[in-house]
Amino acid sequence: MTEERRSLLRSRIRDVPDFPSEGILFKDITPLLADVEAFRACIALMAEPFDGEVLHAVVGIESRGFMFGAALADKLGVGFVPVRKPGKLPAATHRAEYELEYGSDAIEIHRDALERGDQVVVVDDLIATGGTALAAKELVQRCGADVAAFVFLVNLVDLRGAEKLSPSRVITLLDY
Predict the structure, then answer these.
(1) 108 a catalytic residue
(2) Does 101 qualify as catalytic in the annotation?
(3) CA-CA distance, 113 to 107, in Å (whole number)?
(4) Residue 164: which domain range?
């Protein structure tokens, strides 16, 4: 059953060559989002590893992590916490910077979004180099909480981002 669901997900991810720039093969998840059966299968696969675990929240990374994170939080029966680009959250925040290929960027979380000792799952659509995920982990820890696991729909294996999250638990549904 699990392999059938993974095949369904894979069939709903479209390859778009040379987007957003030449030489990039973009993994377009919008067909998966538009297919309710595939989206439900995705969320079920994301939730499966946490059966019986005590979790307190799902943290979703802007922006596609919001789509998967909110649905996963609902499935797990916990709250959803957004991690956003700077200046998008209205209350006091923690901020973490991370490196990009040409420069740097930052993300933020509300300071009061999590409680000390909370066990959280961090979700995004894709893991590439791991920079954003590591920054999200830093934010969770600055709130006093712990990352129980990272969950990604797509893992771009050659970029080795999942390896950089070690020793954290990393769950990926599809490797490319």
Answers:
(1) no
(2) yes
(3) 14
(4) 53-175
